[in-house]
Design a protein that fits this description.
Pfam families: PTR2. InterPro entries: Alpha/beta_knot_MTases (IPR029028), MFS_trans_sf (IPR036259), POT_fam (IPR000109), PTR2_symporter_CS (IPR018456). One of its GO terms (cellular component) is apical plasma membrane. The protein is of the alpha+beta class. It has 5 domains: about 45-220, MFS general substrate transporter like domains (Growth Hormone, Chain: A, Up-down Bundle); about 220-255, no CATH class; about 280-375 and about 575-670, MFS general substrate transporter like domains (Growth Hormone, Chain: A); about 375-475, Sandwich (Immunoglobulin-like), CATH 2.60.40.180; about 480-570, Immunoglobulin-like, CATH 2.60.40. The chain is built from 18 helices and 21 strands. It has helices at about 45-65, 65-75, 80-95, 95-110, 110-120, 120-140, 145-175, 185-205, 220-235, 260-275, 280-285, 290-295, 315-340, 345-375, 580-605, 610-635, 640-665, 675-685, and strands at about 180, 185, 380-390, 395-400, 410, 420-425, 430-440, 440-450, 455-465, 465-475, 485-490, 495-500, 505-510, 515, 520, 525, 530, 535-540, 540-545, 550-555, 565-570. Strands 11, 14, 15, 20 and 21 form a 5-stranded mixed β-sheet that branches. The longest helix has about 30 residues, at about 145-175. The two termini are about 20 Å apart.
Length: about 700
């Protein structure tokens, strides 16, 4: 018996989702099938979408490639601040897709968001592009071409990484190899990706007439939120033991919302629950552009056949993705299948997490090795001191009334290269040192002030027939981008202007003037042009190696003209940047198994009305992952290798949790949702009697 009679009161149990009457649509003629690519089942419109994605990703990843170093070396922020801002930007880029998905599904549709919002406003446009472009490409396929649609996601991911590959290699070259405005040309490095965004817009617009444009289906985000809220509140109101329990907590929304929406929300919440552990994977993967790049700045980029900039190591990721996607699809997955193993999407994602854990364990080992080979740093109430004798004969240097006097007891020959700095203890944060200099039959007493945690060079110079000294502070961390740093002491009686390949020459004052450090590209410098007010000459600086800092003393003590005496303030970086290759191989394999699979999994599990919402939720996990890195960088206080170990261990724990959740997850195909809804609706109707609901208008 139907409890809802025709002449019943206007107090009812139902409130329609929309008060607007939808007029019946007249029958339409069969549509002409869309044009295909070379007789295949792939729509021609896919070509425009993939090319557009290539250009857009070129722009995005090209800008990201130099972003961390821009913060560090151009804006002079600390490593932790640069890392935090980098990941804050990434996080914002992945949070905005929620807004973009809501607009796409409820108002404009995927096509208009992608072209008008996404490509017109880059700052907020990434929120319009990310949740729409993958799903928009999936919409171009007919239902009978599911295999081609699954392969489309691999091709789509290939286009992403092809754009990333080229831009990550070219953009650092535009920054480092081109000089503008007196330094690295960041303007060009950011300008070229901007131009590619214009090209992306043009290409996408060219295919407009070929696209299959799914119309928006109403404000789906609002409907989902209201449906969930009504189910929770309705269940709370009807918590009496006399009321029959329902199979699912969302069934308590049946009094107000249609069965199809409830089933869609059920499918959505099941997947969103599965997404909870995913941000930790992205927290590791996204550090390639921040922590891994900063690690590369302390490694030697000279591979013999090519010299790599630190940020160019990121090119390994898209390059390996282009290799691994067909390798995994056509070889590895098929071999696993022939072995009788059911390698489901969720199992692939779990294995991807384990590989990412291993990658960060390797990163930690490399970091420890770099620290072992790095020059020591002065600690609390300590300084490092080297004595450079620029006089024409040996000098004996002793320290008066100090326990450190034995460190400088031996005589120092003229222009003797010191093997290393000497460590001096201060007992306070700053101190005045008294030095006794013996030169021939002369004794000279000098006093110099120093502060803890610094390096200093004590320069001894001729002063007529006597000698004098000057204390020069050696700046720490002067080398940047895997480059080298140089400074000069000019013993000539005239100012010298030195051309080092940059726009502005380096000026060094006369009579033992000391220049600031200047960073230059590594390599051989056999003839550096120099000028005084009445003479031109060249200096042979020799090889300037990766990460080293050099002091050059310009002298004119021979008949061959001015010469440069060279000594190392900071030794060159010995560990090769090639040691980062294993970690990139592991993390890229992890990305292919996790991210490519996740894209296809998200689309296949999404109800038809919520595909962009679920895509945005997938991207939202990336935003949360970036936020995790931001929080750890700002508040952990760990040394870098320990931070890498922390991330590896956290992901291992999360992988265990995800594996348990995946074990109990039962995949549901979207086309089966309506069938499930038809089976469950009689059950819902039987349990809707005698409930406490609000008075609503029919």
């Amino acid at each position: 018996m139907n409890p809802f009679r025709k002449n019943e009161s206007k107090e009812t149990f139902f409130l329609p989702v929309s008060t607007e009457e939808v007029p019946p649509r007249p029958p339409s003629l069969p549509k002409k099938p869309p044009p295909k690519i070379c007789g295949s089942n792939y729509p021609l419109s896919i070509a425009f979408i993939v090319v557009n994605e290539f250009c857009e990703r070129f722009s995005y990843y090209g800008m990201k490639a130099v972003l961390t170093l821009y913060f560090l070396y151009f804006l002079h922020w600390t490593e932790d601040t640069s890392t935090s801002v980098y990941h804050a930007f990434n996080s914002l880029c992945y949070f905005t897709p929620i807004l973009g998905a809501a607009i796409a599904d409820s108002w404009l549709g995927k096509f208009k968001v992608l072209s008008l919002v996404g490509l017109s406003l880059i700052a907020l446009g990434t929120g319009g592009i990310k949740p729409c472009v993958a799903a928009f490409g999936g919409d171009q396929f007919e239902q009978k071409h599911e295999e081609e649609r699954a392969r489309y996601f691999s091709v789509f991911y290939l286009s992403i990484n092809a754009g990333s590959l080229i831009s990550t290699f070219i953009t650092p070259m535009l920054r480092g190899d081109v000089q503008c405005f007196g330094g690295d040309c960041y303007a060009l490095a950011f300008g070229v990706p901007g131009l590619l965004m214009v090209i992306a817009l043009v290409v996408f617009a060219m295919g407009s007439k070929m696209y299959k444009k799914t119309p928006p289906e109403g404000n789906i985000v609002t409907q989902v939120v209201k449906c969930i809220w009504f189910a929770v509140s309705n269940r709370f109101k009807n918590r009496s033991g006399d009321i029959t329990k329902r199979e699912h907590w969302l069934d308590w929304a049946a009094e107000k919302y249609p069965k199809r929406l409830i089933m869609d929300v059920k499918a959505l919440t099941r997947i969103l629950f599965l997404y909870i552990p995913l941000p930790m994977f992205w927290a590791l993967l996204e550090q390639q552009g921040s922590r891994w790049t900063l690690q590369a700045t302390r490694m030697n980029g000279n591979l013999g056949f090519i010299v790599l900039q630190p940020e160019q190591m990121q090119v390994l990721n898209p390059l390996l993705v282009l290799i691994f996607i067909p390798l995994f699809d056509l070889v590895i997955y098929r071999l696993v299948s022939k072995c009788g193993i059911n390698f489901t999407s969720l199992r692939k994602m779990a294995v991807g997490m384990i590989l990412a854990c291993l990658a960060f364990a390797v990163v930690a080992v490399v970091e420890i090795k770099i620290n072992e080979m790095a020059p020591p740093q002065p600690g609390h109430q300590e300084i490092f001191l080297q004595v450079l004798n620029l006089a024409d004969d040996e000098v004996e240097v002793t320290m008066q009334g100090d326990e450190n006097n034995s460190l400088l007891a031996e005589s120092i020959k003229s222009f003797q290269k010191m093997p290393h700095y000497s460590k001096l203890h201060l007992k306070t944060e700053s101190k005045d040192f008294h030095f006794h200099l013996k030169y021939h039959n002369l004794s000279v007493y000098t006093e110099h002030s120093v502060e803890e945690k610094n390096r200093y060079s004590l320069l001894i110079r001729e002063d007529g027939k006597s000698i004098s000294s000057m204390m020069v502070k050696d700046t720490e961390n002067v080398t940047t981008n895997g480059m080298t740093a140089v400074r000069f002491v000019n013993t000539l009686s005239k100012e010298v202007n030195i051309s080092l390949g940059t726009n502005l020459p380096l000026s060094v004052g006369e009579d033992y003037g000391v220049s600031a450090y200047r960073t230059v590209q590594t390599g051989e410098y056999p003839a550096v042009q120099c000028k005084t007010e009445d003479d031109d000459f060249s200096l042979n600086l020799g090889l300037l190696d990766f990460g080293a800092a050099y002091l050059f003393v310009i002298t004119n003590s021979t008949n061959q003209g001015p010469q440069a005496w060279k000594t190392e303030d900071i030794p060159a970086t010995k560990i090769s940047i090639a040691w980062q290759l294993p970690q990139y191989v592991l993390v890229t394999a992890a990305e292919v198994m996790f991210s490519v699979t996740g894209l296809e999994f998200s689309y296949s599990q999404a109800p038809s009305s919520m595909k962009s919402v679920l895509q945005a939720a997938w991207l939202l996990t990336i935003g949360v992952g970036n936020f995790i890195v931001l929080a750890v960088a700002q508040f952990s206080g760990l040394v870098q290798w320990a931070e890498f170990i922390l991330f590896s261990c956290l992901l291992l724990v999360v992988c265990l949790v995800f594996s348990i959740m995946a074990y109990y997850y039962v995949p549901v195909k979207p086309e089966n949702i309506q069938e499930l809804a038809d089976k469950q609706i009689p059950y819902m109707q039987r349990n809707m009697i005698n409930l406490k609901t609000k008075n609503t208008k029919l």
